[in-house]
Design the sequence.
């Protein structure tokens, strides 16, 4: 069974996503409070984002600009006239008991994103991209920190008012794997644009899904459930796969799916019905009278469109077509902007593209994973790697030494040339010098020499190893090989 | 005459000529508050006399060393209790904000502080500015200084009563449907609702965001202009405040209105109005004619729908603005609630008074699913029609006239149980809020010992013409009456 | 009335529901006359004075201290506002 879980059940999976992305502005959407993550509770709040009586919002232009850019990258129409509305509902993490959001005049509408999975390429429609404000955070005390069973809750409004971009897709996604691919691609685009850090774990990128099944070939949509609380790509796939399976069983048993909100429980790997006291939602939207409407000038949109950075798809194609990378390497290197930038800087610095790609995806990625660092935060810069590749290419160091040098520079941040000089790691390519060591080794190991002469080729490995040991690995291995053969 | 009976326009030259100083002025006002406020009950919170005098002494010290004096310096001001003041309670006359102390100042409060005006205290109002009599205050009933058995009007009743009773040199109020002009009219003082967007609303606890405006209540038109030129102007903290140059309103007052094109609005006079009100209006029109203005009577047909449109838009916005009073971050919280929903329901039931509940219910209903288009949507369209009516009228006229209110101050308790009758009290003032235009009330007569107000409406941001017309009228009319603090209940005894 | 009171989070007794219900009916009757106006070709006005495009730069300004933020809190703990259980 595929991840979609419906390959042979006779049902087609229909998924639409609603993604919330915290925009990476330094100040909040409607006030000047900072947006830093992880500060002490209620220390990044002011009359506006605490909803104090009399406080008024003023919109952060940068957040609007980021939303327009995101819309452009998703091939959306950018509205000429847009406006904020109030969405009214009571909840303790809401400072004003209404959320400033958008209703019938979102900033962006009608875009799309092409997504590839192993077997298919699919165009997923983007219904709208709009801007709103985030809510505060609730900490539940008692009941294992969950809302159900808690004794009481504590509200922290530091997050209240952080700009939140909402992206709504059409129900065009056909499997959990496609949903993952969509999210991954969206994430890499938003990272390229630099509009968000898109961390699902820290909650700066959040995703809810509407999922329904219908008999294959039907055109009408089935009853959907809304799945929430998916805090990683893995959780997304697992939650949706579970939901596909659950709905399949319900339908196969001749029952009907109940329209409800379901919570993903990552520990148990299941979704459960979120049976809170449900009240009929009536958000009573109306135009936010404290903010004025926005006219988005076409010249500004055109200017932004012209200045959009190269998006991952375009970069990948360029890596393949003009740099000559393989499809897989190109994909990995273009997936995140910092990784792609690192690679390009190496190539611009004169590094061989293939070698640079191998080192970035190999040694460097391995070290980054092991130390939990991001590429832009580690001590190794494109200058380091380029220099290392040059030393290797010139034969100044061997491949084996290169790995040792890499280790050292990853830890200390010293340039490879410095490390090689300091430690005397330069490769010995002088045939007289190597010859002297070879002679000594041959004299000390008559038994191995005899074996080699008798045609036992394995013995040469032993002799080369001895030479390398005495030269601390610095002898040019090819020359050692040649000299031993020459002497015998 | 005592110092506290004089307008700022008299006190300021006296200060300049060293005939008096801020300390003497503040002492006179403090004595008046001490002597009168137990009957008037305008003040909810009085700033300590020592603190006021300390501020006055600082003003005098500064004045002695400076050649540049400004009019509002050292003048005690009464602030409506919906203007946020650091370290000073701001309750909106509601139980739900009992003991609430804001951590920030309203922009207008800061602007007055920059001028070294001295806050005398916070004054009573209808709860959250919902009302026309100041009787919906959760704390006290304010009396009209002309007749203590009558209301001072509302919702800025405390502000108007404090100025009329000479307890403050000037006051700030807020006006959503007439809340500055109607009490000014009832108390025989001057009250201005500026053009929407002229004065920052930052720190004004919102009633209806698209209608609210802060404005001055003063003894005369010059004072009104003097206060306006300080509080007007773009505020980066209020998106709806308008970025434009603020003229010297006092400097533009010349009292010349020859050739001014004046229109009297037919829909805002006559039927159902107290007859003395109509007489006073006729008299005012005559006076304008004598001053050389050209008078015409015109019709704004959609004003008929102003009151119903207002009673949808106002409560709808209010229902949303008042959602934040939930007992979570500030204000009253019920003592007994097991869960969040119960806490919301009880906190709000205990904290809000009857009129606030009525408006929240009305506004919530008007916005709810299935009713939006019929009520809120339709009201916003009616608003467009009313604006268009005014645009047409202002194409040919400079100012429009009407009575400020259909009646003089009514008896306390008279309209409490009949909200619709109370609402009708604002029938002449509401259109200006819907259209966002400036409007002023100036005294234009007395009926049975109670003041009558004339309303003058102007074009968007044309406060210069509006104030000058009011100034010309005031001078020609020669209003010089003072309230007598009549107490009918005392006579009966 | 009950539904509206729940939406508005106002606990009203049956007597209050009756009392307000009667008054609101009277007010709505007066209000209903706006439905007679033909507005089919009229745009709604949300802002009486036309202003557009008012923004702030993405710059931080000082926040309140935690003490100031919590100074009016009916109940506070660990730097946050305490609320009763939500479900």
Sequence:
């Amino acid at each position: 069974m595929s991840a979609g879980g419906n390959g042979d059940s006779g049902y087609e999976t229909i998924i639409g996503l609603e993604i919330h992305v915290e925009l990476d502005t330094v100040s909040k959407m409607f006030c000047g409070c900072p947006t830093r993550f992880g500060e002490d509770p209620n220390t990044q709040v002011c009359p506006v984002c605490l909803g104090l009586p009399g406080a008024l919002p003023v919109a952060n232009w940068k957040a609007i600009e980021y939303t327009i850019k995101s819309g452009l990258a998703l091939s959306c129409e950018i509205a000429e006239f847009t406006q904020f509305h109030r969405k009214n509902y009571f909840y303790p993490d809401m400072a004003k008991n209404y959320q400033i959001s958008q209703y019938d005049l979102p900033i962006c509408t009608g875009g799309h994103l092409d997504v590839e999975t192993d077997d298919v390429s699919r165009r997923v429609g983007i219904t709208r991209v709009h801007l709103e404000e985030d809510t505060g955070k609730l900490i539940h005390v008692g009941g294992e920190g969950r809302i159900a069973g808690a004794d009481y809750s504590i509200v922290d409004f530091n997050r209240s008012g952080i700009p939140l971009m909402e992206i709504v897709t059409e129900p065009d996604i056909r499997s959990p794997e496609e949903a993952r691919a969509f999210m991954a691609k969206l994430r890499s685009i938003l990272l390229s644009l630099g509009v968000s850090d898109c961390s699902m774990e820290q909650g700066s990128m959040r995703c809810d899904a509407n999922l329904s099944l219908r008999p294959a070939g039907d055109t009408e949509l089935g009853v959907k459930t809304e799945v929430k609380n998916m805090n990683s790509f893995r959780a997304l796939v697992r939650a949706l796969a579970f939901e596909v399976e659950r709905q399949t069983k319900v339908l196969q048993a001749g029952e009907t799916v109940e329209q409800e909100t379901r919570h993903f429980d990552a520990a148990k790997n299941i979704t459960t019905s979120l049976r809170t006291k449900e009240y009929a939602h009536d958000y009573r939207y109306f135009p936010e009278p404290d903010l004025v409407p926005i006219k988005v000038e076409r010249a500004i949109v055109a200017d932004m469109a012209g200045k959009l950075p190269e998006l991952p798809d375009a970069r990948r194609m360029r890596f393949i077509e003009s740099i000559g990378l393989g499809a897989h390497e190109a994909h990995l290197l273009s997936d995140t902007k910092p990784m792609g930038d690192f690679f390009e800087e190496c190539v611009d610095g004169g590094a061989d593209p293939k070698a640079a790609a191998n080192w970035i995806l190999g040694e460097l990625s391995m070290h980054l994973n092991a130390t939990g660092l991001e590429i832009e935060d580690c001590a190794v810069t494109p200058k380091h790697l380029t220099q290392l590749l040059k030393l290797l290419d010139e034969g100044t160091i061997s491949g084996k030494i290169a790995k040792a040098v890499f280790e050292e520079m990853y830890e200390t941040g010293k340039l490879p040339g410095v490390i090689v000089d300091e430690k005397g790691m330069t490769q010995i390519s002088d045939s007289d010098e190597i010859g002297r060591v070879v002679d000594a080794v041959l004299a000390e190991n008559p038994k191995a020499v005899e074996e080699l002469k008798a045609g036992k080729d394995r013995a040469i490995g032993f002799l080369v190893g001895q030479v390398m040991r005495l030269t601390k690995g610095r002898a040019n291995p090819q020359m050692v090989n040649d000299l031993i053969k020459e002497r015998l | 005459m005592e110092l506290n009976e004089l307008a700022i326009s008299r006190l300021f030259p006296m200060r300049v000529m060293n005939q008096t100083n801020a300390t003497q002025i503040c002492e006179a006002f403090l004595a008046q508050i001490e002597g009168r406020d137990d009957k008037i009950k305008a003040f909810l919170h009085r700033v300590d006399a020592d603190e006021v005098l300390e501020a006055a002494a600082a003003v005098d010290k500064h004045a002695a060393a400076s050649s540049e004096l400004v009019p509002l310096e050292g003048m005690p001001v009464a602030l409506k209790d919906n203007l946020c003041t650091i370290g000073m309670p701001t309750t909106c006359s509601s139980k739900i904000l009992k003991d609430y102390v804001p951590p920030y100042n309203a922009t207008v409060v800061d602007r007055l502080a920059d001028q070294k005006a001295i806050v005398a205290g916070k004054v009573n109002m209808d709860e959250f500015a919902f009302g026309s009599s100041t009787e919906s205050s959760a704390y006290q009933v304010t009396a009209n200084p002309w007749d203590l058995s009558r209301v001072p009007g509302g919702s800025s009743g405390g502000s108007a009563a404090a100025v009329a009773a000479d307890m403050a040199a000037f006051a700030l109020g807020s006006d959503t449907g007439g809340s500055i002009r109607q009490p000014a009219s009832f108390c025989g003082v001057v009250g201005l609702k500026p053009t929407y967007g002229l004065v920052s609303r930052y720190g004004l606890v919102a009633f209806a965001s698209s209608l609210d405006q802060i404005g001055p209540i003063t003894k005369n038109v010059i004072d009104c202009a003097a206060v306006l030129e300080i509080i007007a102007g773009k505020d980066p903290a209020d998106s709806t405040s308008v970025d434009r140059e603020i003229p010297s309103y006092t400097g533009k007052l010349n009292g010349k209105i020859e050739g001014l094109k004046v229109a009297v609005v037919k829909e805002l006079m006559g039927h159902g109005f107290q007859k003395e009100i109509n007489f006073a209006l006729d008299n005012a029109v005559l006076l304008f004619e004598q001053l050389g203005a050209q008078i015409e009577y015109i019709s704004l047909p959609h004003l008929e729908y102003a009151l119903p449109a207002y009673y949808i838009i106002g409560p709808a916005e209010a229902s949303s603005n008042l959602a934040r009073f939930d007992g979570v971050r500030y204000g009253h919280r019920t003592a007994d609630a097991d869960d969040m929903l119960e806490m919301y329901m009880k906190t709000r039931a205990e904290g809000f008074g009857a009129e606030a509940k009525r408006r929240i219910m009305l506004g919530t209903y008007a916005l709810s699913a299935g009713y939006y288009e019929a009520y809120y949507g339709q009201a916003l369209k009616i608003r467009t029609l009313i604006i268009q009516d005014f645009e047409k009228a202002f194409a040919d006229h400079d100012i429009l006239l009407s009575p400020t209110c259909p009646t003089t101050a009514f008896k306390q308790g008279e309209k409490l149980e009949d909200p619709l009758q109370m609402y009708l009290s604002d029938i002449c003032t509401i259109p200006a809020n819907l259209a966002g235009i400036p409007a002023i009330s100036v005294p234009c007569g007395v009926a049975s010992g109670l003041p009558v107000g004339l309303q003058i409406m102007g074009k968007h941001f044309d406060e210069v013409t509006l104030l000058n017309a009011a100034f010309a009228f005031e001078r020609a009319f020669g209003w010089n009456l003072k309230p007598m603090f009549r107490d009918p209940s005392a006579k009966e005894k | 009335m009950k539904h509206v009171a729940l939406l508005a989070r106002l606990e009203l007794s049956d007597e209050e529901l009756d009392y307000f219900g009667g008054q609101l009916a009277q007010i709505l009757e007066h209000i209903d006359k706006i439905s007679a106006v033909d507005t089919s070709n009229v745009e709604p006005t949300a802002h009486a004075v036309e202003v557009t495009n008012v923004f702030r730069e993405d710059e931080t300004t000082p926040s309140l201290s935690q003490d100031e933020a919590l100074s009016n809190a009916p109940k506070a703990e660990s730097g946050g506002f305490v609320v009763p259980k939500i479900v």
Q: What stands out?
A: The interface with chain B takes residues 47, 50-59, 86, 88, 90, 92, 95-98, 155, 157, 277, 282, 284-286, 289-292 of chain A (CB under 8 Å). The mean pLDDT of chain A is 91.
